[in-house]
Every structure is written in C-alpha cells, then in structure tokens.
From TrEMBL, chain A:
InterPro entries: SoxD (IPR006279), SoxD_sf (IPR038561). This is Sarcosine oxidase subunit delta. Gene3D superfamilies: Folate-binding superfamily. GO terms for molecular function: sarcosine oxidase activity. One of its GO terms (biological process) is tetrahydrofolate metabolic process. Pfam families: SoxD (PF04267). It comes from the Bacteria.
UniProtKB/TrEMBL annotation, chain B:
It comes from the Bacteria. InterPro entries: SoxG, TrmE/GcvT-like. This is Sarcosine oxidase subunit gamma. It holds the Pfam family SoxG.
TrEMBL record, chain C:
PANTHER family: FAD-DEPENDENT OXIDOREDUCTASE DOMAIN-CONTAINING PROTEIN 1, SARCOSINE DEHYDROGENASE-RELATED. It catalyses: sarcosine + (6S)-5,6,7,8-tetrahydrofolate + O2 = (6R)-5,10-methylene-5,6,7,8-tetrahydrofolate + glycine + H2O2; sarcosine + O2 + H2O = formaldehyde + glycine + H2O2. It holds the Pfam family DAO. This is Sarcosine oxidase subunit beta. Keywords: Cytoplasm, FAD, Flavoprotein, FMN, Nucleotide-binding, Oxidoreductase.
From TrEMBL, chain D:
InterPro entries: 2Fe-2S-bd_N, FAD/NAD-bd_sf, FAD/NAD-binding_dom, GcvT/YgfZ/DmdA, GcvT/YgfZ_C, GcvT_C, GCVT_N, Sarcosine_oxidase_asu. GO terms for biological process: tetrahydrofolate metabolic process. This is Sarcosine oxidase subunit alpha. NCBIfam families: soxA. One of its GO terms (molecular function) is sarcosine oxidase activity. Residues 170-421 form the FAD/NAD(P)-binding domain. Belongs to the GcvT family. Residues 910-995 form the Aminomethyltransferase C-terminal domain. The keyword Oxidoreductase applies. Keywords: Oxidoreductase.
C-alpha cells in the first residue's frame, strides 16, 4: 500500500487515491517513425528490479499526472516530480545516487 | 426555477452525527492560471470570498472558493445565481485562457455535523482527520469509499461533502451506515462526546 | 528409481518408510550441457521433460536460483481451463489441459488433477455476448465448453447467489473438464521424472551472466561457476526482464504482483471452480477444504511478492456478493506472486535476437494451467526451431500489431 | 479430570454464572471465562478431532496458537466455523459444536485413519490413487474430498455488518503486555501520537501470571498503573479486543477489532477493520511456548505448561488433579509452583537437563515437588484422555524406567518470539543459540517509503524473556521509535523488573533424544494436520530439503494456526535430518494475517445496497416505477426495456421499437459522457484525439467522431458539437465519460502540456433525453419556445434555446435513423422535463424505450456500437469507417499503429450485414466456418457475428459481422454453426438494412 506525495497539491496520497500509469519518460513516436522505434515506444519497457521511473495520476485527488522514482524491489520512494518534463530532474537523480550509488536507468544515472 | 430539485431533495438522518443533503447549491468549475489576476477576480467577484491557498477553501454559507488543483477552482454561489455568475465570470476572464462552466446540477452536497463527525468520516476516507491534521479552512479531495469526493469543515464539528449527483444515494447510504448509533469509534472524539 | 504405488506404500509401511529414495538428485553442475533451462518452475521442468521424452535430449541442466517450484508454480490458485477465445490461446491451453488428464500416470506422481469443472459467470449482457462468442469459438477449436443457464449454475453451485440485486447471474460458460491440480506436485512430478532421465536439476544456483560469442549463446555464469551450453531457455516468470537484460535484449514485459488468499478449511460446499469477471474474483475449494480465492493484479511494477491490500478487499467484497456465506469464513493466509504482463497479456514463446536463446514468459495470470502445453511446445521450439503451438506467440507480433487479446471476452483472463 | 477449583481465577467473576451449550449439552461457566476454560471447568477434555487421522484432541494452549480446540459457534446467520475456544469469550447462551467427526465427537468413524496411520505417511497421496486411472476421479478423490475440510459450512446470509476505520498515528504499538505498555509509555512521553492494540480483553499479557515485581510492586499493579497513566494521556489511544493482523508496505497496518463477538446481542458492527498508517510500528507481540516432541504428546490432557498455569491462575480451573511436567527450561517450574499452590498434585517435574534449573527449581523443590533431572517422557498413555506416562532417560531411546499414573501432562520446550508482524513486510530473523529461537535481526528490518526500517520489536517479541530485560528493551524500543520520527525522548527512569534467576534452557527437539522410530511415529509436531517427527524426516529423506518443500510436502504449519506451534520444532527436526544448522535451513515466509480475520471485516461496509456505487440518472426513479428491466452499464443502470404487466421482455422491446419508428419514443440518454474542451488549441487537440478532422467543424454544427488508442484500436465514439470558436462539446459512450476524460487529461498533461486546452467533465450537469420518431417535431413544437423546423435546426446541428420554459440545448442527431432531437436540460430539472414530455406527448403516442430497442434500431441502420462491433482488436478501417478517418491529417492517436503490417493486411475481416436465408436470428458470437483445419487442428474460420437481433421493423433476423473480404463478397452465403449442432446459413449484405438513404432522419 504505497504512499506517494503528489507534487501538485502536496498531499501524501495513499495508493487508493492514485492510478498507476506505467513507465515514465517515454518518447512518443508517430507517423514516419520506424517500426523499431514505434514498437519500443509502445511495448519495450524497462522492467528493472530496482530503481524505476513511473507515471501516476492523483485520480481521486487533484487529478494531476506526476512522476515517481521508486525501487521496485524495496518500494523505497526516492521522490516525485511533475509530469511536464522529459527527464528526471537533477535533485531526484542526486537523491537516488545518495541511496543507490552507481544506479542506471536508460540513459539516466 | 420552482421545479428544480436536488438529488435527494434534502434527505436527512440522525445517528452518531446528523447527515443531511444540503439541497441546491450553485457551483462553477473555473480552470485557469490561478496567479492570473483576471482569473482571481472572476472567482472572488462572484463569490465575495478571498482566493484560497493550496488545499484550502474560503466558504461562507452558500458562497465560497475551493482550491481543486493548481489550475482549478470550485466557486460556490447560491443555486439561482449560478447562470448569471458564469456569464459575469466569462466576461471578466475576457481573452485569458480559462474555462468557467456551471456544474451546479452535476453535484450533490452533504452536511455531516456533530462531535463524532471526524470519526464517522474517517470510516470512509483514507485521510488523517485528526484536528491537528485537518480543520476549518482546509479542503480535501479524496476517495469516499468507492467514489471521488471533496470536503471542508464549516466548523470544528461540521463537514460539508461534495460528490457527483449520480452517486448521491450511495454516499448518503454510506454516511448513514457509518453514523449508526451503535458504531461509535472514539478515536478523534471520546465515545461519550 | 522405484515406482510409486499403493503396494510400495504398504511395503514401506512395514519398515516405517525408511526405504524411500530421493525424488530427485541434487548434483553439482557439469562444465557443459546440450541445453540449459534457467528456472526450475513448472514451465522450465516441463520443457526439460518433453525435451527428453519427445526429442531424446537428456544432457540437460535446469538451473534454479532458489528451490524448485518455489516461484509462481507454488503461489497460484491452481485453476486449469482452456476455454479461451483466440485460436492460439485455445490451442496451447487445451494441449496443456489434455496432457493434465494423464499426467499423473505419465509422471508416476499423483498431481491430483481434478476435472471438477470451471464456470465463468456472465453478470452483464456484454459478458453474455462475450461468453457465447467464446462457446462458438471453442466448439470449432475442439475445446469442449457450453453456455449454461442460471438454473444450471445454481444446481452446480448451490452456495451461489444467482439473483443478486446488483449483478444477477445471467448464465455461464461451462468447461466440464476444467478443474484444478495440486500445484507443488506438478513441479515435483516433473522434477522427479527429469531426474529419472538423468537430467540435472541444480537448485540454489543463480545465473549472474549470459555469455555470447558471435551473436550466439555460449553459456552462463552462475553462483556455482560458469556452465557452457549449445542452447539456452529462459523460463523465469517474473524475472524474465532481468535475464533478458543479461542476454542483451529488452522484452515487452512488466512484472507486477498478483495476489491470492485462502480461507480456513470448511467441509466441501463447492465442487467446481467459479470465476466472476465482472466483479473480478474467482474461487474454488481445495481438497483440504480451504476456499482458494484470487483477484486482479496490481497496476505497477513490483518484485516484492507483496501486493496491495485493497485488491484483496475488492476481491473478497465481490465474492461475498456472489457467495454470501463466505462472509462468515475467515481469511487464513494471503500471499503474492510476481507475474509477467506483456503488451497484449498473452505469453511469449519465441526465439530471441540472440541465436539459440529461447524465451518462455509473459504468462501473466495463466501460467499454471498452461504448464504441460507450454513445456510441450517450447521443447519442440527449442529442439526443432519451430512449433505450431508457439508460432503465434513470437516476439515480433508486437512490431506487426498482431496481438492475441483475450480480454476481449472476459474482463480478467485468469 | 479437569475441574473448577475454589481458589485463584483473577479474570473470572464467581458471582456471575453463565449457561452455554457444547454439542447440545447444557454447561455452566463464569463471567470472564473463555470457552476453553469453561469447557475444562466441566471436565470436557476431548474437544475435537484432528484433520487427517481424526485423533482425539484436547485443549493444548490458552491463546491464539491453539491448534485443536476449534468450534462451530452460534446459529443461523450468526454461525461461524473454526472459532478458537481459547480466544472465545464466554457469553450467556453461547452454543458451540466440535468439528470434524462423524457421527459424534466421542465415537468418530474417521478414527479408522488413526489405526491405519502407518499407511498414510507424509505425501502418501502423491504416490498412489493413480491406478486404475478412472478411479482417481470416480472413487478416490470424491472420498478424499468428503473426508476433507474442518468446520461446518455456514448456511445463511451473514446477519452482521462490518466497517473500516482509517487511523493515522505516529507510532502503532501491537500488543498490550508489559512490553507494549512500557514501549507505548516511553513513546507517548515524547509527545508522539500512539495507538496501542491488544488482541485480548485484558492488559498485561502473561506477566501477571508469570509473576515477578516491577519497582518492588507486583506486576499486576504496574500494569494497572501504566494503563491508567496511558489512558490519561491525550496523545494515546488504547484498544482491547483489537489484534494487529498484518504489517504492509509504507507503514500500513491492519487492526482487527472484534466489537460484538463477546456479546452477539449488541447492536452495531461486529468487526471493525482498522486501516492504520503509522510512521513507526512497535511489535510487542510476546512469545509462544513450544511443545515437546514425545510419543503421545497429542493425547487430551497434554498441555503447554504456560497454558496450564493460565487456566489455574486466570480462571481457577485445574486441567488435571495429578500432573506430570516435562521441560527443558526453568519456566515450567512456574507451572509446578502455581499448581501446587492451587492444591493440585504435581507428581513429577521431568527436567531434560541433567543439571536442572535455577531459583525456580529450588523453590519448587522446597515446596516438596519431586524433580527428576535428565529424565524425559518416553510416551504418554491414554486414548481420549491421559492415563499416565512412561518415564525414561532423556539421553536415550526411550526405554521405560517407570510408569506414572496421572491425568494431565504439562510440557515446555522453551519459547519462540512472535516475529510474524516483524516479518510480514520483509523483516529478517537471526537464530539465537542460547535460547534456541529466531528473533528479529535489528540490522535487517522491514523498510518503508524512506528506505528506513519502520518496525521496532520490543520485549519477548524481540527475544527478551526475562521481566527486567523485557521492560528495558521495551522502554528503549519506545524511545527509539519516537526518536526516529523526530520526537525527543525524556531521560525518564526505566522501571526495574525483578524475578528469579533462571538457568539456561537446553534445546530439546525430540524427547527422548534418540527416540525409536516407533516413538517418533507418534510424536506430533503439527497437531491439527497430524504431522509427526517421522513425517518431516521422511520429507528430508526423499529430497524435499528446502523448508518450503518440507512444509508443502508434509503440510507442516499449514493448519489454521499457521505453524505457531509446529514451525520451529519441525524446522529443527528438518535441520537435524539434513545435518545442517537451523539458521541455514531457514524459515518459511510469514504471511498476514497473524490469526485468521473474517471475510466480512475485509469487505467492510460494502455489502447489499452499498456493495458498489449505483449511478442514477435524474429519471432513475421514474424508470424504476415503470417496469424498467435494468441493465448494468459500468456503475450506471439503464433500462433494457420497460416491461408492462403481462409482457415478456422481448414483447416490450418489440413494442418500443415499433412505436418509436411509427410514432414517438423517449430515451434517457443522460449517461452519455459530455466533455467540454476549450482553448486556443482545442481544435488542434481534437484533431489528434479523433480520427476525423474536428478543427474544421463550424460552430453550431455536430460531427460524429471516432477515437482510437495509440495502439490503433477503436476505444470510443460519439458526436462532437462545436459551441464556439474555441469551445467543443464531446459526447462519449456511457461507459466512456470518465475514461475518455482521463485519456484527454493524460495527453494534455504528459505530452502536449504547452497546448492551451482545458477540459471539464459536465456529464452529470445535464439530463439528456432523446425525442425520437416521426412525431418528434410535433411534440417540441407543441411545447414551444424555439424553432425546431428543418431550416432553423437542420440535421447534425444544435441550438440553445427554451422549450416550455426550460433552458435547453437541442442536438439534431440520430442513432435510430428517425427524426430525432437530443435535448439537454439541467439535471435538477431533468425529471420535470421528462414528465412534461410524457404528458404533452401522450397525444402523439409517446413511449419511452430502453437500451435494447436502441440497439436494434441502430443495427437496422448499420450504425456500429462500441463494445459490440469493437472488442479492443478492431480498427476503424475494419468497420468501413474510412469516411470518418481524415486523409488530410499527418497525425492522430493511432495513425502510426494503423500503418503496421498486420493492420494494413488486406485479409483483415471487414464489416458487413448478414441475413439468414430463413429469416431466423443468428446466434450471438457465431463464427463463419471455412474449409479445413489449421496447424493445430482447429477448424478454419472466415468471419464472426458482432451483433444480431430480431428486427420488428423488417420482421426478420438481422446481423452485423466481420468477414474475410466481406465487402467484396456481397450475396455470398456463409455457414455459421450453432453450439447446439444446428447450422445457420446467412447471406452477406450491406450493413444498412433500413432507410438506406437516410431520408427519415433528415426531414
């Protein structure tokens, strides 16, 4: 039963207020993209046993989508941040490094 | 409009606390950049209330402003004034990117009053309702059993709860069950109280 | 190795059962095997078994990082059915179901396959249409199912509430030869049979790396040292992504927690398996008398084998609505397993970008029921390079948009 | 025999007698009794039968760990099976029945299994019942199943109610013994908010029974004082009859409060499930005494030493008159002393330790109790109750040295901390050599959202068994927990506990140490499941070496006590068989709940009317009062048809279609989603969401649109109306409003956050009524207020205005093919407007129609229905909807997906109409067969029915379906086998069956 802080309303929302939205920071590939790129965009997923970035919506709350950095093996939460970004902000990455030195996720570390 | 009726026509129940449907309440959803002066003016001018901060509500009787999200307010006005209020707000907003829409008929409002009000609501919402954590002036959107809802406190023993009109009966039945006279909890208030 | 039988038990009883042999050996790994299977769960062991039985390939090692059968094989609700809508699913699940029929005799290990019948309740008009469609499809697929009336449902399951105020039972899709089996025994039975063929089941042996040479698999590095192989099968539900990463490719798979629970045992009161997808719950009664209950999966990546409690609540609520009497039973134990969810919720049995590495994963909630069919088909794929049972489940289907979507007929496909 | 004694009984009120029945027999107990103590007071030593061998079983314990004394309690709607007598408070009129025997508890046919037990070792069923094959299914399994199970099946619907409670606290203390109380006090004194849960009705745990002093006063006084202090503190909540059931991620914990189990006549909910969020959780859950594994240790009258002490001291009940005690530690001497003091004869204390124990042994000796060191029980004699024991040297094979006649045996194998709640969420354990038990490993706690440990064990649960150590450990735990979350612990003085010096215990996993096979074959580990020492040894011998294998192969620890009694002993036997150290063999996983909790409590308030939300439109009550046959659509209910007296549902549907086509129909369309999309980029946004071009729509006009997922499949459809230059109103399907609203917000917030678009869901703001049929315009003209003529309001346009004084928005759209107006009025006036339409429409033959009539009429027109023609695998191109897919746009959600090879495959099945040759109705979901079978032997198919109805308008069956190359095969006849052997022949035709040119809707 996770608790994640919604970065928009500041509420520490428990899981039943939230709706999970899968992997974060996917780059949309539309018409004109290669089959590989489009496949990866829709289906290829990081599925790490460890640090993971994902999307959540504060569905039974302020309704906003946000991102969370979470460890899938321990459920430790490194931080949450707004969805209007294409990559994890530095403070989040630093927070992860402090807890998981040497972590990597896609091109991020 | 004489033949306009609220979802439960003012139904009420007395148990651990008093549960009542508040009847018709004017409500306007206002979306926009809350730091924009026109947006603030649109909300304050029709409600006569100040702009609330994050997760807060300024409400007096049937008029008020509730903070719904970083770009959304719920503006309360008397039911009969909602239509005019929307027009006035739209005029005030002018060309500013925003959306003001009358949702008075889309919602139902309940009042939960009595010393045990916190205990009763805490049976249905995953929210810390202790006096230290929540009191008058604050506003919370959350889950009430299986439906979304929002509430604020008019005073230390009174909640007003807003939900969608279609589930008004469900919410009323939930509140009745939670307010069963023999179901006192005594967590936020001593059982005697 | 001695055969199991009533006579053997009687003989052993006289000497207090001191003469029973080990069900399987636990050898140290050799330097090289023709085939290495990673994962000694039901699917991995079944694959090894049919490699030996159908293709005479017995120089096989099955590597297990924990103890055999310790993954989802021992954590599911033991339901066996094949009443799937899409042809490829029906084919592999029916193959599995048919093999279950004789598996105890085949393995000389009683798996207690119990074809007590599986029923999927239709509680909305939409579900009625969906299941009638499935019944039509099954008839042409050679899967024996039928659409039955609410009255028939009530006869088969007296404790059910068919005229529930909210979701009355409008009928059901009934598979008479579906049922359950003793889940641990499936792994143990295959393990014993593999061991009997001289295969090596190596427990507490974790794979730490996969070695490739010129785009081909060369072997694996393990906590018990490096082991070479000609062919490698990845059969590790829940952890496929991690191993794929070692092999250098990504999968359209996410690992989530799926939960189940059992009640305290009561006297027999329900002789069939009932699935109620509208309300997301399914229930059967074990031979011990426990009501075995399962529900929906979590929606986020999770490797903890602990799910979120609100899913348990939703499932129990739903089942009380359908079976009012269970309200006064107690939950004895709840647990979670990690399941692979693919892009279309159907499994992957496929070659991979690395030559001679094959992957069997993504069973989601359907893993247990498919074990023999999955092993049969995957063994054929690994031995011959192609298998009609596996063809439609290849990795490239996602790129082509050629999905196998079972949610079409039923909300959740357990 | 067991009986009530004149002295002792700190928890009972001798002035308040209580009457109850056991297996129909009227018995008497006292206020304060548990069912178990009351049964013992009535010399009811035989209380149940074991699961596998149906062996006679008596009360073993006095608490939650009891494996034997399980009862069916109550009657009718309040009956509940498998209730533990040891944790059931006695109340007047209680009715209890023992379980798992036939015909009676005293004489049980199943007992034959016991006689044959040698033939039923662990896992025997895996090795037999296989031949002849058919016998398993026809004979063996049915027999096994009939014998299976424990408690009786409840027959009636639950008569009770349940509820949840969400509690937030700084610190949750689980367990109200001296450790819990002291930990709570230490934590609360820092100002932290503390919630304490105690599963029994009493505070203090077992300390008051075990004795000792705190700061010079008796433990009981310390307990009273501390409880009083805590009760007086504002920041502390104390709850008894509330068990900490489970610990979950991120500080979530379940509390199981039993409100009326002790007094079923009380009104209100029976159980309350506390859903607690705590920053830290202190587990002060105590320890459980272990049994000793000697032959016959399951015969009624053999009891845990601590339990026997509890019955004497707490309830004034003597479990026997002449007692033999076997032990490997000092604690059992407390029992010897307590019994002696109560005037019960203690014949022997058999202490397996050659050197015996410490102070307590001396004290017992001084009281004249005979103590034999280095001695053990070889076997217990008796069947339904203990008649005696054979005494032997512990360090031997069990050769009898003497026989002692007795009627009860107390045993103590040492104590195991209750580590369940520590372990539920991943807390790890370490093996304590000196006390031979697992205790929490302080370095590997369960971790929370911040990655820090959030559970702190205290007292006996942390492996501290001596009173003084318990108190100081608990005090430290309380302070540690508070400090960890930012409170400042006071340097208050720690209460000093004092008790006798105890000598070290000696691990005894088998008694006597080298017991013969015959003896091991009668030494029970798991009482309820009949798992014996020999079974675990067999599992090890057969290679089931993992502790999980052994557990699953022997069923050790899988009974309703979940191994509270058996696990450690079984584990030790396994380790011994494998010649491996115990910690290396490890433990099985601890899963919630700590003890079983009711399904009712788990479901909470959600039952009956409030099982799920039921969404009602403003006209819901009218439908209900007028024969609505309801159809659930999501959480909505829509009338499938309005059935009149004497009508079948089918008749009603036919009537509704006919009347709408010929006269005038009303449809409650309020459930259709309505989303306002506004902003400078609204048009651009909708162009991305819909396959159509929406930005070119003129204000005042409507356009039918299709929405696809990014994966290409159709997910929704509906009519879009352009309100003004930068405002659109999008209709969605009934199920779709919330889903599509979320879909829009997702793309706006996560992908196109720089676009200026706001969306608002106004679905419930309006009651929407479709006025449909040739007379539709007549009715609206009669109401008056706005011009609804073809010129003023043409097809596929909308207008705001007034009708009969109602503010309305009228859409000229049609899903039936008839002249049709969809009219939106504010929901609060919806019912009034509906009533008015019915009243004024009477002269035009107005009649409401339901969803099935709607479906038939749309099918007659060849309109697709999301959920019928689509099923999540269908793309618009399959449905001949190319006209609704803009060619001009270079992008929309789903466009790229629809370019994938399988989506552009010319062999995809396409939408057509289907007409049976004989006019009959095609079966729902039927498939059209093709020649031959596929590689897996499945019949080839070339199409399927997507929707099928009897059309009253055409007087024949009509259907739509997806068929291979369908549109190019008009007139071809396909065969659709039914499931009943009957085959249907249907011709491929255009999907538009009625008014092909759309003249009727466009008048």
């Amino acid at each position: 039963m996770l608790i994640l802080q919604c970065p928009y309303c500041g509420i520490d929302a428990e899981e039943t207020e939230l709706a999970p939205g899968g992997e974060a920071h996917l780059k949309r590939h539309g018409p004109g993209s290669s089959d590989e790129d489009f496949h990866d965009y829709l289906f290829a997923r990081e599925n790490p046993r460890g640090v993971h970035f994902e999307r959540w919506r504060h569905a039974n709350g302020c309704g906003k989508w946000f991102h969370a950095a979470r460890d899938t093996a321990t459920l430790e939460v490194f931080g949450t941040y707004p969805a209007q970004t294409t990559e994890p902000p530095k403070e989040i990455r630093d927070a992860i490094t402090a807890r998981r030195p040497g972590w990597r996720w896609r091109e991020f570390s | 409009m004489s033949d306009a009726v609220s979802a439960l026509k003012g139904a009420s129940f007395d148990g651990l606390v008093r549960v009542e449907e508040c009847g018709l309440q004017g409500m306007i959803t206002l979306r926009g950049d809350l730091s924009n002066r026109a947006v603030a003016k649109a909300a304050t001018s029709v409600s006569g209330q100040k702009m609330p901060g994050q997760n807060r509500a300024n409400v007096a009787g049937e008029s008020g402003i509730c903070w719904m999200s970083p770009d959304e307010l719920l503006v309360l006005v008397p039911y009969s004034e909602a239509g005019a209020a929307v027009e006035k707000m739209t005029a005030t907003l002018g060309k500013v990117h925003s959306l003001a829409v009358n949702v008075s008929d889309a919602r139902a409002v309940f009042r939960l009053s009595g010393p045990a009000a916190r205990d009763v609501l805490a049976k249905l919402c995953p929210v810390d309702l202790s006096p230290e954590a929540f009191g008058p002036g604050q506003f919370r959107r959350t889950r009430l059993a299986q439906v979304p809802a929002a509430f604020w406190m008019d005073d230390a023993e009174t909640f007003r709860i807003v939900c969608f009109r279609s589930v008004a009966q469900y919410v009323f039945d939930l509140l009745k069950a939670a307010a069963h006279p023999a179901a006192a909890v005594g967590y936020h208030t001593s059982v005697g109280g | 190795m001695k055969r199991y039988s009533a006579f053997a038990i009687a003989r052993e009883a006289l000497r207090y059962h001191t003469g029973w042999e080990r069900a399987w050996t636990s050898p140290e790994p050799k330097r090289h095997y023709d085939v290495i299977i990673i994962g000694a769960g039901g699917h991995g062991l079944a694959t090894a078994y049919y490699l030996g039985k159908n293709y005479g390939i017995t120089n096989v090692a099955v590597l297990e990082k924990g103890w055999l059968g310790g993954g989802n094989t021992g954590r599911n609700t033991t339901i066996i059915r094949s009443n799937y809508l899409q042809d490829p699913s029906a084919a592999i699940y029916e193959k599995a179901r048919a093999l279950y029929e004789d598996l105890s005799q085949d393995l000389n290990y009683n798996l207690m396959f119990s074809p007590r019948g599986v029923m999927m309740l239709a509680q909305t008009h939409h579900e009625v249409r969906g299941y009638k469609r499935t019944a039509h499809a099954n008839a042409l697929q050679g899967v024996k199912t039928e659409w039955i009336s609410p009255q028939r449902v009530k006869e088969l399951v007296p404790i059910i509430n068919i005229d529930g105020p909210r979701y009355p039972v409008l009928g059901a899709l009934w598979q008479e030869r579906g049922g359950t089996a003793r889940h641990d025994a499936v792994a143990w039975g295959y393990a014993r049979a593999c061991s009997r063929m001289g295969m090596h089941i190596i427990q507490k042996c974790e794979v730490t790396g996969i070695r490739r040479e010129g785009g081909k698999v060369a072997g694996v590095d393990t906590t018990k040292g490096p082991i070479d192989c000609n062919k490698l099968g990845l059969v590790v539900a829940g952890h496929s992504g991690v191993l794929a990463q070692m092999a250098g490719f990504r999968l359209p798979v996410e690992s989530v927690a799926l939960q189940a629970l059992v009640s305290e045992p009561i006297k027999p009161c329900m002789d069939v398996v009932v699935m109620a997808n509208t309300v997301h719950g399914y229930m059967s009664q074990s031979d011990k008398g426990e009501m075995v209950i399962g529900g929906g999966a979590d929606g986020f990546n999770n490797y903890t084998q602990r799910g979120s409690f609100h899913h348990i609540e939703e499932t129990v609520r739903a089942l009380i609505e359908t079976f009012p009497i269970i309200s006064r039973l107690k939950m004895l134990r709840q647990w979670g397993g990690i399941v692979d969810m693919t892009g279309d919720r159907s499994p992957i049995l496929s070659k991979t970008p690395v030559e001679n590495i094959f992957i069997n994963c993504g069973w989601g909630t359907g893993g247990f029921k498919s074990i023999p069919g999955s092993g049969w088909g995957f063994a054929q794929l690994m031995a011959t390079g192609d298998s009609p049972l596996c063809r439609a489940f290849s990795l490239d289907r996602f790129k082509e948009g050629r999905f196998i979507d079972e949610s079409v007929a039923a909300g959740v496909a357990h | 025999m067991s009986a009530r004694i004149a002295t002792q009984g700190r928890l009972i009120d001798r002035s308040k007698p209580i009457t109850f029945t056991f297996n129909g027999k009227r018995l008497h107990g006292l206020q304060g009794d548990t069912l178990a103590s009351a049964l013992l007071a009535n010399d009811q030593m035989l209380v149940g039968r074991s699961y596998k061998y149906h062996r006679p079983r008596g009360i073993l314990a006095s608490g939650a760990e009891e494996p034997n004394a399980l009862m069916g309690l109550g009657e009718g709607g309040k009956f509940e099976p498998n209730q533990r007598a040891t944790t059931t408070e006695l109340y007047d009129g209680l009715t209890a029945r023992s379980q798992n025997h036939w015909p009676s508890l005293e004489f049980d046919v199943g007992q034959v299994n016991a006689a044959l037990s040698r033939f039923f070792p662990a896992g025997f069923y895996y090795k037999t019942f296989m031949w002849p094959k058919s016998f398993w299914e026809k004979v063996y399994e049915p027999v096994i199943r009939q014998a299976a199970g424990l408690g009786a099946v409840p027959k009636e619907r639950d008569a009770d109610t349940y509820e949840y409670f969400y509690a937030f606290t700084d610190i949750l203390v689980i367990g109200g013994g001296v450790a819990g109380l002291q930990a709570a006090k230490a934590a609360a004194q820092t100002g932290a908010k503390v919630l304490v849960l105690e599963q029994t009705p009493h505070w203090g745990g077992r300390a008051p029974v075990d004795g000792g002093t705190v700061d010079g006063e008796p433990v009981e006084a310390f307990v009273e004082r501390t409880v009083a202090e805590l009760s007086a503190m504002e920041n502390v909540t104390l709850r008894t009859r509330a068990m900490g059931a489970g610990v979950y991620d991120h500080g979530y914990a379940l509390g199981y409060e039993r409100l009326t189990d002790h007094a079923p006549l009380l009104a209100g909910p029976r159980h309350r499930l506390w859903r607690i969020r705590a920053k830290r959780i202190i587990t002060a859950t105590g320890a459980i005494e272990r049994t000793l594994s000697f032959a016959g240790n399951d015969i009624p009258g053999v009891m845990l030493a601590s339990a026997m002490r509890d019955y004497v001291v707490n309830y004034g009940v003597a479990p026997g008159q002449r007692v033999v005690i076997a032990t490997n530690n000092d604690d059992a001497y407390r029992t010897a002393i307590a019994l002696k003091q109560a005037g019960i004869e203690v014949l022997r204390v058999l202490d397996a330790r050659n050197s015996g124990g410490g102070d307590l042994m001396r004290q017992a000796h001084e009281m004249g109790i005979r103590i034999d060191c280095g001695r053990a029980i070889a076997r217990v004699k008796g069947a339904k109750r203990v008649t005696g024991v054979s005494v032997c040297a512990h360090d031997g094979e069990g050769g009898a040295l003497e026989e002692v006649a007795c009627d009860a045996v107390a045993m103590s194998g040492g104590w195991s901390p209750v580590v369940h709640l520590w372990s539920h969420c991943g807390g790890k354990l370490i093996w304590d050599e000196t006390q031979a038990h697992f205790r929490p490993d302080p370095n590997r706690p369960p971790t929370g959202a911040d990655g820090e440990g959030f559970v702190v064990p205290a007292g006996a649960a942390n492996g501290e068994l001596m009173l003084d150590a318990v108190l100081s450990d608990a005090d430290a735990a309380g302070k540690l927990a508070a400090k960890a979350i930012g409170f400042k612990p006071k340097r208050g003085k720690v209460p000093q506990g004092a008790g006798p010096e105890e000598a070290p215990m000696m691990p005894v996993w088998l008694m006597p140490a080298r017991a013969t096979t015959a003896l091991r074959n009668k030494a029970f580990l798991d009482y309820q499941n009949d798992v014996k020492v020999s079974d675990v040894q067999l599992a090890a011998q057969e290679g089931y070496e993992s502790v999980e294998h052994t557990k699953r192969y022997t069923t050790l620890g899988m009974a309703t006590d979940q191994g509270k009694i058996a696990n450690i002993n079984g584990l030790a036997i396994l380790a011994d068989s494998l010649n491996a150290p115990i910690p290396q063999v490890g433990t099985t996983t601890f899963r919630p709940p700590y003890t079983p909790i009711s399904m009712g409590a788990i479901a909470g308030e959600a039952r009956g009317e409030i099982f799920q939300p039921l969404r009602r439109t403003p006209m819901h009550d009218w439908h209900d009062e007028n024969g609505a046959d309801w159809e659930p659509v999501g959480h909505w209910r829509r009338p499938y048809a309005y059935v009149r007296p004497g009508e079948s549902v089918h008749d009603a549907v036919m009537r509704e279609v006919k009347n709408t086509r010929e006269k005038l129909g009303l449809l409650d369309a309020s459930t259709l989603g309505k989303l306002i999309v506004k902003g400078r980029d609204a048009g651009k946004f909708l162009d991305m969401l819909y396959t159509n071009m929406m930005s070119t729509l003129k204000p005042g006009k409507c356009r039918y649109g299709l929405m696809c997922s990014e994966n290409g499949f159709l997910i929704d459809d509906g009519v879009v109306a352009r309100i003004d230059e930068d405002t659109f109103l999008c209709h969605t399907t009934t199920g779709g409003a919330d889903r599509i609203h979320a879909h829009m917000e997702e793309w706006l917030q996560c992908e196109w956050w720089d676009w200026q678009v706001y969306v608002a869901n106004v679905t419930e703001q309006f009651a929407q009524i479709a006025v449909v049929g040739p007379n539709a315009r007549k009715l609206l003209e009669k109401l008056g207020g706005m011009d609804v003529s073809k010129d003023a309001l043409p097809f596929m346009e909308w207008r705001d205005g007034q009708l009969a004084g109602f503010d309305v928005r009228v859409y000229r759209i049609s899903f039936s093919g008839e002249l049709s107006y969809e009219i939106a009025v504010p929901a609060c006036r919806g019912r009034a407007f509906w009533d008015l339409l019915l009243k004024e429409g009477a002269e035009f033959g107005v009649m409401p129609y339901g969803t099935e009539a709607l479906h038939i009429m749309r099918a007659e027109k060849g309109f697709i229905m999301i959920g019928d023609e689509t099923d999540g695998t269908v793309i618009p191109q399959d449905l001949g909807l190319h006209w609704a897919i803009s060619k001009k746009k270079d992008d929309y959600l789903g466009k790229r997906a629809q370019q994938r090879s399988h989506m552009t495959d010319p062999n995809r099945w396409k939408l057509v109409g289907l007409e049976t040759l004989d006019g009959s109705v095609l079966p729902d979901g039927a498939y059209a067969v093709a020649e031959g079978v596929n590689e897996n032997g499945q019949r080839n198919v070339q199409g399927r029915v997507t929707s099928t109805y009897f059309s009253p308008t055409l007087g024949r069956g009509i259907a739509m379906g997806l068929v291979l190359h369908g549109p190019d095969r008009m007139g071809e006849v396909l065969e659709f086998p039914g499931t009943d052997g009957k085959a249907f022949k249907a011709k491929i035709v255009s999907p538009v069956f009625y008014d092909k040119d759309g003249e009727k809707q466009n008048v």
